[in-house]
Amino acid sequence: TVLDQAPEVGAGASGLPAGLAAPHVSPDDNVLSRITRAGVQATLQRAQALLHNGTDWALTGVLEHNLAGKRRLPPNSPDHHSTPATAAQVADAGLPPDSPALWHAQAGWIRPRRLVAAQLQTPGVQVRWSQQVQSIERRGDEWAVTDAQGQTLGQAPWLVVASAFDSLALLQPLPDFAVPLNPLRGQISFGLMADLNEAQRQLLPPFPVNGHGSFISGVPTPEGLPGWFIGSTFERNCTQAPVRTEDHAANQVRLATLLPALGEAMAGQFEPGRVQGWAGVRCTLPNRLPAVGPIDRARLPGLCLSTGMGARGISLAVLCGELTAAWLNKEPLP
């Protein structure tokens, strides 16, 4: 049973119109790199099973413009899907020949709301919308969730709190609870492909590009028309998600840094009345890793958490769900 405070799917950060499933790489192949590699694989497999290719998601590959040389593959990389970009791939992105870049073959774009909606259609899953959970408490061998009036909304032996930054308010009253969740607001800017002229279209890369935010084109907007997308911004310690004009300007600078020729050509697309926006609040932990699984088996049996995925929710959420299911059913971890 899923209890959601919103009236429909994707009211939180999963309402992002379009984003990327792409791995993180590091010279020492650290934990974040390893789990995003596994997570991207899980997400893409789930998308292939449940979504429409070309309209809901696509395995396009992603070029990472390695600005400032921050991203380096480890020696003898275990991931043959991530390699130095070829000269042809760099050229296709519209970057100068000497631009440092990586190519991630096992990566692509996805519309998160479509994935969430499809997963909620799983047989046996019941969704109850507009459920304002105020508190959680242990009652005998079960967990109960109640609303502001003290009415019980649900009761079960296992409870998974997966409410992004709102998880903190539910868990803080518990004894000795300490998970340092932080809110992270992000805004993307997007527009319609139909508004681009032929010269601008000629500069569009045939695949998504990331490395300083990400740029995606040819993907349906929330209204269904093909669009382009750039973002997102990163604003720490912000729990509200209004769409702001100044963030469109920040995303214009982001595009000009990521893809200079395209950014210059598309400057006029960020004018008021043309550009559209979406903003949401993600949730992070200081170590940049998600908080997932049983919180304290001894003192809080049956209570699990799944949050803290930051800007990598598309790459990590499916894997975190699989991990949680394995713990709940005492199965081997994926």
Structure report:
- By secondary structure, the chain is of the alpha+beta class.
- Helix content is 24%, strand content 28%.
- It contains eight helices and 20 strands.
- The chain has helices at 31-50, 87-92, 112-119, 167-171, 198-202, 245-258, 260-265, 313-328; strands at 2-3, 19-21, 57-58, 62-65, 82-84, 101-104, 108-110, 127-128, 135-139, 142-146, 152-156, 159-161, 182-192, 209-210, 214-220, 226-231, 235-236, 276-284, 291-296, 300-307.
- Strands 4, 5, 6, 13, 14, 15, 16, 17 and 18 form a nine-stranded mixed beta sheet that branches. Strands 2-7-3 form a three-stranded antiparallel beta sheet.
- Strand 9 (135-139) and strand 10 (142-146) form a beta hairpin.
- Helix 1 (31-50) crosses helix 8 (313-328).
- The longest helix has 20 residues, at 31-50.
- The chain is globular.
- The relative contact order is 0.18.
- The model has no long low-confidence stretch (mean pLDDT 96).
Largest sheet, strands/sense/barrel: 9 strands, mixed
What is the mean predicted local confidence, pLDDT?
A: 96
Which parts are unreliable, with pLDDT below 50 for 5 consecutive residues or more?
A: none
Classify the beta-strand content into a percent band: 25-35%
Terminal residue distance = 23 Å
How many β-strand stretches? 20
Q: How does the overall form come out from the CA principal axes?
A: globular
